[in-house]
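Module 6 notes. Inverse folding takes a fixed backbone as the condition and produces residue identities as the prediction. Think of it as a translation problem where the source language is geometry and the target language is the twenty amino acids. Below is one complete input and output pair. Work through it position by position during the lab.
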């Protein structure tokens, strides 16, 4: 009996003295709280926005993340090399060459694609040539917001890249911020995927999206956007082709103009919309013929009896006199009946744990004490309505 009681007492001590510290379960560490991501809490569902508690940024630009609509961010790109490289870009009326040198950087507006102009990138022993890559600057993401706010994105043109371009191979360089599980191999905090180093058929953009968040994509080949040539005028006169090119070495500077604006929603995700249509609450949709911008039916100027404009070879002017129009669908379709109940089981791991709400506040005020004939003037000069 004595040994039985000793064994039972030891078992109770072991059971009560241990606690699980695995945060992947439902038991959380002391004073640890978990909440859903801000992007999940900001909207009630996909493609849904509108007035109501917890809905942030209803009139924000499509694709912008909640809590990040304050100021538009730029991505600062630093061009690392080669040392003889100068960087220009397409402007509104042509190209601006030698705007940035190797080792310098420039702030590019996000969610846009730019046409760059690289000079001084010829291989040794080959004549000088100009490359015209496209630079795709992705929009800021919650995972890249802190990095882009404090760092630039390094971009380097290597000799291997130039050899591939000289061999008529297209080069795609994807610079992304790797996820935590892939950050051990990253250099300077970011990672670069090059299409020529991957297996054939592997898309570097999709590969980078699986391992992190893309910030910049550079694509270039050997296409010349300003070829030397001549044009024949209407009078038969042959004149050389001229291009409007600014030169930064002469002090001619111009900002880049995007050649394409990227949909900020991205990844095939529809942008936020209001159920009323038109992008703002209360803006009606007019599906009735003859109302608003919807064209009316049955106008005498149509060429078909149903009232809709017909083929261009039919004469216009015939009246719309059709009184019955029947369309029969004889297809053999299989349409299952709609379900009457949908069950979705959701389990958060770890579960949400928030602190207790505040129910008691205690504070102490200390006021100065002045004696007779002592005057105290407030810092605001005693203006009414101020404390």
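Target side of the pair, the amino acids:
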């Amino acid at each position: 009996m004595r040994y039985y009681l000793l064994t039972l007492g030891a078992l109770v001590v072991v059971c009560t003295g241990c606690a699980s510290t695995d945060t992947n379960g439902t038991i959380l560490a002391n004073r640890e709280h978990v909440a859903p991501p801000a992007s999940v809490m900001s909207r009630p569902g996909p493609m849904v926005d509108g007035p109501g508690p917890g809905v942030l940024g209803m009139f924000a630009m499509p694709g912008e993340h909640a809590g990040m609509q304050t100021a538009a961010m730029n991505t600062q790109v630093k061009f690392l090399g080669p040392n003889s490289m100068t960087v220009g870009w397409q402007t509104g009326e042509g190209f601006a060459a030698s705007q940035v040198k190797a080792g310098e950087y420039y702030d590019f507006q996000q969610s846009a694609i730019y046409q760059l102009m690289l000079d001084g990138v010829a291989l040794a022993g080959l004549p000088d040539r100009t490359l015209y890559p496209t630079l795709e600057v992705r929009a800021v993401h919650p995972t890249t917001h802190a990095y882009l706010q404090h760092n630039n994105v390094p971009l380097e043109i290597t000799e291997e890249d130039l050899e591939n371009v000289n061999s008529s191979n297209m080069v795609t360089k994807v610079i992304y911020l790797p996820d935590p599980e892939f950050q051990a191999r990253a250099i300077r905090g970011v990672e670069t995927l090059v299409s020529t180093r991957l297996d054939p058929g592997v898309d570097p953009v999709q590969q980078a999206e699986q391992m992190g968040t893309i910030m910049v994509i550079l694509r270039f080949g050997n296409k010349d956007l300003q070829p030397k040539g001549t044009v024949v005028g209407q009078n038969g006169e042959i004149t050389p082709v001229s291009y409007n090119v600014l030169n930064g070495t002469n002090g001619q500077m111009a900002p880049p103009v995007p050649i394409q604006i990227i949909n900020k929603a991205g990844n095939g995700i529809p942008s936020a919309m209001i159920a009323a249509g038109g992008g703002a609450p209360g803006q009606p949709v007019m599906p009735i013929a003859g109302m608003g911008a919807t064209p009316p039916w049955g106008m005498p100027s149509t060429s078909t009896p149903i009232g809709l404009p017909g083929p261009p070879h039919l004469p216009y002017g015939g009246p719309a006199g059709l009184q019955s129009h029947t369309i029969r669908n004889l297809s053999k379709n299989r349409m299952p009946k709609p379900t009457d109940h949908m069950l979705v089981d959701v389990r958060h791991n770890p579960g949400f744990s928030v602190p207790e709400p505040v129910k008691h506040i205690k504070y102490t005020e200390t006021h100065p004490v002045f004696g007779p004939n002592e005057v105290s003037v407030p810092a605001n000069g005693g203006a009414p309505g101020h404390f």
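Reference fact for the lab report: Residues 76-224+247-261 form one domain.
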